[in-house]
Amino acid sequence: MSESSDAGSAAPLHTQPSLASRLVRTTFVTEESIYGVILVSGMIVVAGSHGASSWQVFWQVILTVVVFWLAHVYAGTVARHGVEHGRVIGIREAFLGSFKRSLGLVASALIPSFILLLGATKAVDDSVAMWIALWAGVVVLAVLGWIAFARRGSPWPIRLAGAVGTAAFGLAMILMKALIH
Q1: Exposure on the CB side of residue 61, measured as CA atoms within 13 A
Q2: At what angle do helices 91-107 and 54-80 cross, to 10 degrees?
């Protein structure tokens, strides 16, 4: 093959990330998502330790996440609004940026909440639903850690270490549940 045929078939080095990739990066693999999973796990530990049903824990988790999310959007809007690097950021732009950034906090409650609903509908026992929701949090944290290091181009051992390190927060919640219960 000649050099000219190789050059024509080479993939560009700098391609634009897909919409799905940008959405995952800016919405789901954020500190808000990681914090949200830990918050939800903590709520399950605390609410579940008082003998609450899956239905009660579900509502406590949902209401707490909504309040934290609203507070996060408000705080982000206030913090972003004003002049930054010589550019005026209006209230609408500040709100939209904060809203978008904090979606991971809400999204982080989806999987555990669905699992808690399985307990609420008696598809599984309440206690089992809470334990599965906690373990799902560990898995979600591991995936978030893996993706965070993968998007930096880290080799797989570093990705694995990142996944284990992030999942350790969920494991700490499980340990707390075991000690409290």
Answers
A1: 36
A2: 150
